[in-house]
Amino acid sequence: MEVKHGYKQTEVGVIPEDWEVDQLGTIAFLERGKFTARPRNQPKFFGGDYSFIQTGDITNSNGNITTYTQTLNAEGLRVSKLFPRDTLFFTIAANIGDVGIAAFETAATDSVIAISPKPRIEKRWLYHSLKKRKKIFEGLATQNAQLNINLEKLRPYSLAVPPLAEQRAIAGALSDVDALLGVLDQLIAKKRDLKQAAMQQLLTGQTRLPGFHGEWAVKRLGDLFNFSGGYSASRDQLSNEGHCYLHYGDIHGATKTFVDARAEYQDIPKLNIPLKRVSSKSMLEDGDVVFVDASEDDEGTSRHVVVVNKDNIPFISGLHTIVAKSKTDELAHQFRRYCFQMSAIRQQFLFYAVGTKVSGISKTNIAKLTMPVPKAAEQTAIAEVLTDLDAELAALEQRRAKTRALKQGMMQELLTGRTRLV
User: Fold this and answer.
1) Could you tell me the fold of the domain covering 217-373?
2) Are 167 and 422 in contact (CB under 8 A)?
3) Of the candidates 336, 286, 283, 293, which has an alpha carbon nearest to the alpha carbon of residue 307?
4) Quick check: 116 and 162 in contact, CB under 8 A?
5) How far apart are CA 416 and CA 10, in angstroms?
6) Strand, coil or helix: 10
7) Tens-level pLDDT at each residue, the chain (422 residues)
8) 271: helix, coil or strand?
């Protein structure tokens, strides 16, 4: 391979001529967390004044560790060690290769290592360099009781190291993008909270939109819908050929409360069987609501999607689903995307759910659920307000996704020396 002027071929690839290749153990001091105890096994060490971080605190930190889930007392500290504020931590078990910088002095579990860079290394540059290589570190891990990577593999790991001034410039550019992502995360969280509050107020009638008054009717779902089951097929039977098939797992995994047969056609799994084998009650039409009848947790018992299928595309409701088909036109289609998300509805699902390891609800019990129903015009007005909030939320999430993609591109360019900042 031809190497262009100003660059050189090394064991880690082509890098600028003024960069060096160095081992992680040479450019930083690596020290494993000192505490092996767990609260359930040795509670005498826990519940004091000293912060104690674990792998989850790093994984969920987005790079800045500002919270911790456990504390140590004085007895626990005697068999552990406090690392100084601004220590760079790296997970070596469970979620391998996650990194974060602690905003406080803290002790740490033995499933993380503390990394102290040498004076010629910018800590934030090293943070980004390690974060970029998470998949590589996962590949270096060995399988024991769980995946883990030891210091013997980390210390000799080679990195392309730019001069200190360039390290600082790279860290500054990437940290600026991280700060923008942090702002977007906060905006999205606030927008979600606003939507939840609006739903609680508007869907219960606690807050009325201008121009609407009068009492709401309370309806049983059995008065509004006929309920039936889906056509059972395993995930292994699904492919890219055949008719659209709504698997209950895809309802659990959905990020929104509707599925559009036309817009999402390419992404919807298919089942290749003759339609004559499927009951008409299991064929999904525009406005049908599909609930899951089983969940591994309480939160999932009320999971559902509303079907958008104005073109009558053959769409089969699948395993572990309950199909709700309208008896009346009392519920506007757009309103259905929101009305079943009320906390009162979720509580009723939990009341009727049965099971231990898996919670389930039957067609008979789901028909017993009740909900307040405004007149059609108010339903439409409420749905429009909530749809606008959804659109604003989607725009923020799209902006965040683009910013994340931009950061990935910047990391690839800057951390390899393809693009130079100094």
Assistant:
1) Adenine-n6-DNA-methyltransferase TaqI; Chain A, domain 2 (3.90.220)
2) no
3) 286
4) no
5) 12
6) strand
7) 567 889 999 999 999 999 999 999 999 999 999 877 677 678 899 999 999 999 999 999 889 999 998 999 999 999 899 999 999 999 998 789 999 999 999 999 999 999 999 999 999 999 999 999 999 999 888 876 677 898 999 999 999 999 999 999 999 999 999 999 999 999 999 999 999 999 999 999 999 999 999 999 999 999 999 999 999 999 999 999 999 999 999 999 888 899 999 999 999 999 999 999 999 999 999 999 999 988 877 677 889 999 999 999 999 999 899 999 999 999 999 999 999 998 889 899 888 887 656 677 889 999 999 999 999 999 999 999 999 999 999 999 999 999 999 999 999 999 999 999 98
8) strand
One-letter amino acid at 13 equals G
On whether the CB atoms of residues 52 and 68 are closer than 8 A, the answer is: yes
Helix or strand (DSSP H, E) at 100: strand 99-102
Q: What's the token pair of residue 222?
A: 């059995």
* The model's pTM: 0.83
Q: What 3-state class would DSSP assign to 370?
A: strand
DSSP-based three-state secondary structure for 121: coil
DSSP line for 337-372: HHHTTSHHHHHHHHHH-B-SSSEE--HHHHTT-EEE
* 7-160 topology per CATH: Adenine-n6-DNA-methyltransferase TaqI; Chain A, domain 2 (3.90.220)
- Report residue 39 CA to chain centroid gap: 27
Location of each CATH 3.90.220.20 domain in the chain: 7-160, 217-373
Q: Residue 372: which H helix or E strand, with range?
A: strand 370-373
